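Figure S4 source data
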Amino acid sequence: MLRPIVRFQADAIAADVSAALLAHGVVIIERLADPALCDRLATELQPWLDATPVGADSFSGRNTRRTGALLARCPSSVAVVAHPLVLEVVNATLWPKKTTYQLHLTQSIAIGPGSDAQMLHRDHWCFDMFPFPRDIDVEVSTIWALNDFVEANGATRVVPDSHRTPDSEPYTAADTVPAEMPRGSVVLYLGSTVHGGGANTSTASRIGINVDYVLGWLRQEENQYLSYTLDEVKQFPEHIQRLLGYEVGAYALGYIDGGRSPMTLLRQGDPGDAQSFAPR
């Protein structure tokens, strides 16, 4: 019998969520975003979804639309990108984290009717298929539901407990469970957890917001420095600027001008942040 996904309510304790995530590779927090926030996100996102082309291959989804750079295109996404509970869970989960973690990517994913199931994969394969030891967790992925996720409309399919198994493990669709969850909920899974978008056999698109986080000493999947202009970045709250990567990722990683933190550029040269190496 397949293991069900562990579920929490919106008032969950971060340490409990992190413990379950580390134990099973995937958790769901139900209704973490309220209906008003979901409405704002959907309204801001719609023009971009309309303008986004479908994927070019079966992995991206030939009837799936993926829109990135959400912090500028969908301003209300700040609330999910920097949700305090999610960030606490990420901070407690990623290892070996000695200094920072950062935003890996933001994208909306609209799986259209008639879409096939996505190939099962592990998100940390983006790092050139590097075989990370299975006791190292470098990435936490999240998908927020902007409409109810059910099996019929392509709810993300996950293999619980797959995060500690080798890459060679031959998982199939029969090993997966759908991350069914009500609107406003979020599924969190590790970069090593096997998963994939589900097949959409319904008549409407399944729309989610995918936000991933990664250790500060790894390259980001979405290039955050070219996704937003410097003027746009300067308008973001400081904690978003840091998540984007505008602080030193570890000692001497990502500095400017021989040792300054990039945050000094955003703060117009404030020397007080020149050694911004403390964990965030």
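Figure S5 source data
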Amino acid sequence: MSDWQNDIDGWIVLVGVLSACSCALLGNFLVLRRMSLMGDAISHAVLPGLAIAFIISNSRASFPMFLGAVVVGVLTALLTEVIRRHGKVEHGAAMGVVFSLFFALGLILIRRAVDHVDIDPGCVLYGNIAQVPLDALDGIPQAVLNLAGVFLANVLFVGLFYKELRICAFDPALATTLGINASVMHYALMIMVAITTVANFESVGSVLVIAMLIVPAAAAYLLTDRLGMMIAISLVIAAASGVVGHIFAAFGPGWLGFDLSANTSAMMAVVAGLLLFAALMLSPQYGLISTAYHRCKLSLQIVREDILGLLYRWQELKPEGLAGMPRRDLLDALGHGLLTRWALRSLRRRRDVQFARHQGAEPAMVLSQAGMEKASRLVRSHRLWETYLAKYFHLPPDHLHLPAERMEHYITPAMHDDLHEQLEHPTEDPHGKAIPRE
């Protein structure tokens, strides 16, 4: 494993961070506008513009490259919109048609340009970030200057038009009513995406630029619902991808005992993907773990309430000689699964349910005073809803229990009051059972 060298590794990391951050900044608006594929489309579709610029200028000067990319990038957006509107196809399908056509044309033209211009098609596709320290101007690599300029331009663009970009991203129709030309903002964004894409060809290549455009923004989208915070988080994720990606690429194989190094651009995308996976798993609101936890919590709450309701109805009937409902009967009614047993233990810890006096070998359950109050509110919700369905939807009595059983867990105290008023203070449900008082 080689040692860290500031004059090489430091520049590579800086290029990676600038590349990732310049892409991620605009990627937030692509994600919000549900145009993630547009970044991929432009990153592939600008190839013909690059090739034509190479053939005409016979050089890799920045201005012809940017001009060719901008023209083809805007043309990609225009053709996509034309196909979507007049071809009556889905937006993603329209983008797929355009970028596939342009990408194929670009590959043909690049192969032709190879004979006339010093250009490596593999570099265009996969990037050449490891070689950027070799092309230095007054000690500063040219790629750093280019990407710093693009990043600054993107910062100025987003800063100056933040309000317009935000409104157009969430509600283009509202933007129009407020006097904002949504079409102009759309094509301005496409121009900036095209310029950013071309500037990143040398570092991450056309194949991997889409990862930097979309993945940091998508990960940030999972972590917050505020646009400003989303942009900040996406920049942090993009910068981390650049730093950690190069470290893993340069030194990771050595840590594993291999005498090789990995491609930094590819490892940046891998790290960004891992961070997206982490956000997908650990996001407090949208993460899979959080979602599974809340679903489990809700399921447990519903089973707890089902137990309370069952014990309340059992105590209404209260068979002679039994002080409580036998535990076996309760499990037979609700199931012997782990969730039911867990819910029953939880109710006992909360002192909502307790053992009745010993009645032989079989334990029996009975509601405590606190449990009776909770069960009473639950049964009240159930029977009020049954009464509502019978009165306003004219459902027969045998069709009332199941919908009321589902709804009883979600009726709030305010809904209790509304139902009670609309039903003119009923005392019995359609089955003739008393509706508990508050």
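The beta strands are 136-137, 140-141, 325-326, 353-355, 364-367. The two ends are 74 Å apart (CA to CA).
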